[in-house]
Specification:
alpha+beta; Thrombin, subunit H; Alpha-Beta Plaits; 5 helices
Length: about 220
């Protein structure tokens, strides 16, 4: 059995920067602890993706097609990874912008400006250069990748597709060829979401969106 575009697969992987061998992404929690890069905020474990939906870097997405359930080592170029460095994304930000937010800039500082993530590269008087390229832009990468299984269960497919799409746990339920997704979706996005889900999971013939109920804050009574 070989993997085709549109298949759902479960993967384990370790991503490294080729030049330094530094790990920047992985699914194995034990290895993260061993390498002293464990992040308690991160969810570890095998990742389930839909091949061809760019839920991982382009180089891996493309590589998976035609492969079998086994382990591979993959070289990923900047073009197939996080892109080349773009000089246009090096911006001069006035010191006053930092002072307004009570931030003392220094090289290496990561920050969010107008919902864009950047890294301070140089600080010279009132001139601060901020790099808005992806931190791994221009880097050659190596992935050690294991294709563990092909995921056939529709509930499992939908759950992980939505989790990856919205970067959070989404409540959903599948009964035969019908699915119910419980989340708040703006009206103008409801139809595109349904169409996208049905394109990725054609077995679903009917999709219902239910409004996510706000959880009431717990109250405590004092004796």
């Amino acid at each position: 059995m070989t993997i085709q575009k549109g298949d759902f697969v479960e993967l384990d992987f370790v991503g490294r920067i080729k030049e330094t061998n530094q790990i920047f992404d992985l699914t194995d929690e034990k290895l993260a602890k061993k390498e002293n890069i464990h992040d308690p905020k991160q969810t570890y474990g095998p990742k389930i993706i839909c091949v061809g939906e760019q839920q991982l870097v382009k180089g891996i997405d493309k590589f998976l097609i035609g492969k079998e359930l086994k382990t591979y080592t993959i070289d990923v170029t900047p073009e197939q990874g996080f892109g080349k460095k773009d000089a246009r994304l090096l911006k001069l930000v006035p010191l006053s912008t930092f002072k307004k937010e009570k931030i003392q800039p220094f090289p290496g500082l990561q920050l969010n400006i107008d919902n864009h993530l950047g890294i301070v590269r140089t600080v010279s008087g009132g001139r601060i250069i901020v790099d808005f390229n992806h931190p791994l832009a221009g880097r050659n990468l190596i992935y050690e990748l294991t294709i563990k299984r092909q995921v056939k269960d529709t509930q499992e497919q939908l759950q992980h597709y939505l989790n990856n799409l919205f970067n959070k746990e989404v409540k959903c339920k599948v009964e035969k060829d019908k699915a119910t997704i419980t989340m708040t979706v703006p009206e103008h996005l409801q139809k595109p979401l349904k169409e996208q889900v049905q394109k990725v999971i054609p077995a679903l013939k009917e999709i219902t969106l239910e409004e996510e109920k706000a959880t009431k804050p717990k109250t405590t009574t004092q004796a």
